[in-house]
User: Fold these one by one.
Assistant:
Number 1:
Amino acid sequence: MYLTYKATREALEKGEITCQNLIEHYLKRIKEQKHLNAFIETFDEEALKKAKEIDQKIKAGTAGKLAGMVIGLKDVICYKGHKIQAASKILDGFVSRFNATAVKKALAEDAIFIGRQNCDEFAMGSSNENSAFGPSVNPHGKNRVPGGSSGASAVSVAAGMCLVSLGSDTGGSVRQPAAFCGVVGTKPTYSRISRYGLIAYASSFDTIGIISNNTADAALVLEVIAGKDDNDATVSQKAVPSYSKVAIPKKKWKIAYSKESMQSKGLHPEIKQQMQNTMQTLSQEGHTVEQFDFPMLEYILPTYYILTTAEASTNLARYDGVRYGYRTEKKVDLEEMYKKSRSEGFGEEVKRRIMLGTFVLSASYHDAYFTKAQKVRRLIKEHTTQLLEKYDFIISPTTPSPAFGIGDYGEDNLVDYYLADLFTVQANVTGMPAISLPVGKTKNELPIGIQFMANAFEEEKLFGFANYFEKLFASEMVK
Amino acid sequence: MKVDKNTLEKIAHLSRLYFNKNDESKMLKSLNDIIGWVDKLSEVDTSEVEPLTHMTDETNVFRNDENPKNLDREEGLKNAPQQNGEYFKVPRVLD
């Protein structure tokens, strides 16, 4: 099947294929690859019905910008009338009563949603192992995690089960799995896309993100789903540029990398080598590639964990067994009902983050942890902004290592597990846009991702460069 | 900073979570691992820094003072584990 939306649309317009064929094809791919555990549920009948309607629109010449684009939804984005549960037992049986704004906008342009995808519970994790539905599996390598938390969303695109996935990115949850699975992961600026209908993890970090085979598809989808929304008072009111029309600018870019990222202890030698090769090629092409000092690097993840767990403990207080979702079957009083329902419904990692968040917010520790982290966040943001006023992009590996094995991490090496997000969290702590592009593989055939981060609301520039980069490295792009 | 069993129990209560003995000792260990790691932030001099509390650039986003279309009662109750058609049902609070 076609790997780009452009090719798909052309084939649809010429009548070489129908939307119905597309849905049948992707549903077949999903069934054939059940072992990857990517989809929790598919919306077969409805997708086929929608496909027939859009086939008519294409014939009539009235089809929208995303007609025939088949999209998978991470199990944290609301689609009216469909189940959603953040891969958690605590939302068993929950049916969405409204559409997320991103979903509404994509539907208005005739996209088709094919199903909901596995992920780490409440988007908390870097491996898709923290799921009530069991781990999703990376299609590359053997018994490898796909990354997380939008692991299955990356698997679905990499294994041809849908053209594009909508995921969420709070600390790298779209870019890190995209890197592990050899696809493109785009995290826009904080507040570029409405968060209405996105199940909240950490509200000052959460963004909906896009996983695709190429940058053009990501640009088109972002152009459709971004923008102001009466249902989200934090979303940016800025006009949405036509990201899909961005041409490759004829210019020399200024790109910078931090000394600390390249010297980082956990950086896999083959990824380091790929970074060096990539930067060498860019500088041979006449772009400026410079090193800068960023001693703040080691403080970014601790800042992230304090603030996100604090916000999570607040956001997840709503799961109380009263208004929706799971309630304990034990006959107990009200307070015990809350405790039992939550303890039986949440998985271990979610409970850990609620506990940590409650701790850093509690009266005795609020200033020492929560306020302190908010101050460090300001410092990190100011430093990053200064750098991005001087340079067009910050380049880094997306991940310190390629996809690790299922079961490699557990309670005994939690902090090491958290380090999988070492290079991606900076964009969330600062709110900046970033993209992970697949460049090359390790000797073991595991994909490598390289990340570019730009200043806030510079998605146009980022896509322009990514288009260029994609052509420059075409021979090394995975697939 | 180290979390002891007493603090853990308080935090668990505030979080409306319950841990059995085995889970409690595992949780204690992992929380202390993480807290030991995030304590790193104390190395950063923030004496002259204001906390960053909001990430959005938007201020005063208004809408017209009209009743938006909210969920009607039937829709709002549909996902409840126990309800009687009018209200959510919870275990008895008053004797």
Number 2:
Amino acid sequence: MTDRILDRELKKGSAELLILALVEPRPRHGYEISQLIEQRSNGDVRFKVASLYPLLYRLERRGWIVGTWVEKTGQRRRRFYRLTRTGRKVLAEQRRGWHRFVAAINRITEVRHA
Amino acid sequence: MPDWKAVLTRWLAERRVDQVDHGSVIEELSQHLDDRYRSLLARGIASTDAEASVLEELEGDGGNEALARELRRAGRTWPADAPILGVDTRSRWLGGFWQDLRYAARALWRSPGFTSIAVVTLALGVAANTAIFSIVHAVMLQPLPYPEPERLVRIWESNIARGWPAWSTSEPNFLDFRARTTMFEAIAASTGQTFTMAGSQGAEIVRGNRVTAEFLPVLGVLPAIGRNFTAEEDRPGGNVRVAILTHGFWERRFGSDQSVVTQTIALDGANYLIIGVLPPSFQWGSADLLVPLAPNPEGDRDDHRLTAIGRLRDGASIGQAHSELAAIAAALGEHYPESNKEWSVRLASFYDWLIPEPARRSLRLLFAAVGVLLLIACANVASLMLARGTARRKELSIRLALGAARWRIVRQLLTESLLLAFVAALAGLAVGAATTRLLVAYGPATLPRLSEARLDATVVLFGLAIAIATVLVFGLLPALQVSRQHPVDPLREGTRGGSGAVARQRLRSGLIVVEVALSVTLLIGAGLLFRSFWRLQQVEPGFNVATVMTARIRLPSAAYGVRTREAFIERLLSEIRTLPGVVSAATSSAAPLTAGNTSTEVRVPGVESRDGTRPSASWRLVSPGYFATMDIPLRGRDFSPRDVAESRSTVIISEAMARAYWPGRDPIGLTITPSSFGSRERTIIGVAGDVRSLGLDAEPPRTLYFSTAQLTLSATQLVWRSSGDPASHVAAVRDIIRRVDPGAPLYELRSMNDLRDDSFNPRRFNMYLVGVFAGTALLVAAIGLFGVMAYLVSQRTGEIGVRMALGADRSAILWLVLRRGLALSAAGAGIGIGLALGLTRLMQSLLYSVTARDPATFVAVPVLLVAVALAACYLPARRALKVDPVTALRAE
């Protein structure tokens, strides 16, 4: 039950933040992004194709990330998404917002123990 | 392994996503599904289960359609990818242009009120401007039809002391100038002469020009057929019976016969050998042919009748040429003090001579008037575009909010503006072309080259350019302000508009004030011209205009001596007088308004020595009965018929002359000695009323009248007065002349009324045009005012509804709207009066008997304007009265 709530809430408010954060260190392709989300959340959060790609395309349309086909010898070509300068700013902003949000939630929910 | 691409293609097709456009999407997604499938298999999951699990990936969360929606969104492209087959980017851009154009056409079509007012306003501005520009272009801007026209110079002799700043040249003086000048490549002279040519339908008048051999070379004209005059043909006693025909005369009289050279033409009873035909481009007055001038070095130096012209040597300036000729004139003055004392020269470029200052002044006035009209149209277009921009802010904001690129919206507005400009330019050019034809047909003869005005490529470009410039500068810039706003503001504003709307409304009000001010300026200008014209019509010409006819008659000099000529005239006049309906008939060397000035020196006892210069006066040769025929009042007595002895010792003077030299005294019986006609002492037998013979707007000149009994002129003016329409006797007079002498042609038949109209024509032209432009300006300003007031009423519907609901009566509501319109137009009228006070001074020279600050005009025009403004506000005010309070409040 908690898993489902976490999954839903995360996707509702912070899916963008997740993706931006994942492509921040280096460009990644879609499958890699979905794998990382699943692994790092210990399987609590998972994006299906039908929700991950619209998100990627939307972020790309806004100019926050940009996708390019990259060919490596002996491999299929893959579409890698990389963070743009605008995307970097947005990410920083969303991170700050997220930290404030979490801090606020924490202050409210943990007031009993104070 | 399942074919994921096929699965995806089918999946997209089911959701009506165009899969061809998204080839790379399918590739990307199928890889993802493939990876997922492989990883499931690697975890030891059975292939069928793995496949089902992968297919779930496409279900999304809760079966939503996010992916399909995202893909379906317009504008999703993959720029860095392999190009999509079948569409190249260029045609896509053009396709965008056509799409813009269609969209623009639809947008304009959807608001017919805005479109029609903007198009009509702009078209009127373009029409007036192209029409006047086509004339300015033809008259002032086209080069003269001669090679290197800037080197052509008109040369006058001038005698400032006698008040003749630009006088013709005498033959010996011309020859001396020609012999001594070094600044000119050549100088030439010409003088007009009419000939009688015998023809099958009776005698015909042929207009000739006697010219020197250098005349055509100076102008840079070569005969199209044959040759120019030789020096031998251009000297007294030489073989001067040769003629060169103009192209038009050659076509008309010789049917373009190529073998015309070597034929002869009989002029005044003498045979002239035709030696050449001029090209069609040659223009010199209304000449039919040229004959040699053969200037006589022994001629009278005081007989000034040649038109002298010259072509400057390469590198010589008109100033240098003037210094040189003035020095020659001074030398001649010392050598021939009797005739040449105080004579100098005056030079002008051909351009300044042929396109004289009054014509240019008139065109400048008209150009200024249409310029003001265009400014008013600009203000109106700007105001309309502002209102439209306001109305469209929401549409544009929504498009911006939906992600439309700003440049895309600007491009759309640009297309719309250009389409509007183009339609208006086409309409304006069509009206302008018709106007130009009208102006050419009815324009005054004083505008040279007017007949060449037409809508050529330059004029069309001019029209297009002003239309586009107007729309871009005055229309698009305000519209762009709208695109620069934040997308959300207008959406928040609601229907009534916030502070931005107030600013825009203030700007529109300001534009209206400008329009009204400019209209008032233009109307005052038109009013002053109208008042001048009206004053001119009230002027007493000093003679009968209504029922007098004039015609010129020419007697072949070879066939008539002075005595027989006089007998001929006497018989002619007595026969004309017997015609039923003819009251009186006479002759004159020149009827009023028909010829240039004439001048003679007069010795008036006790007057001449006062300042060293002799009095001079205009002169006429008139037959007995002339004053009665023309209804010119006469004190004293008229010349008696057939009394040659008396005619040599008498003179009649004009009232102006009497006032000038015998103020407060009766000059009848005193004597004067005019230098013309034998320098005899003559007794003043009568004083004739003043006649405005040089033009109705010119003061009556001091005039001497001599009797025709001594006349030596071979052409004379016939005048007769009828009890009814004088033109009705033309056929009968022709019959009489044919009976008396078939060799005497009658020509230049004009009623005095026509001559009077002609003398009004330049002023009438200015007045009508400025009047029409001012009227158009008033109309455009009224339309603008109407638009602003209507908009205001629609904006204040709610407020009006509240006021009505609270019990405001109709007159209060009406006043609410009218007050605003009145304030705007009164402010505009005030500024306009100020502008007019400054500007109309510049047109003082175009006015007659009216000051540039004529109080009547300055009062009448603003009153008229405020009346029109109130009318323009009345319709919107009526609409305000019809506001239903309930509906208005419900809309809130």
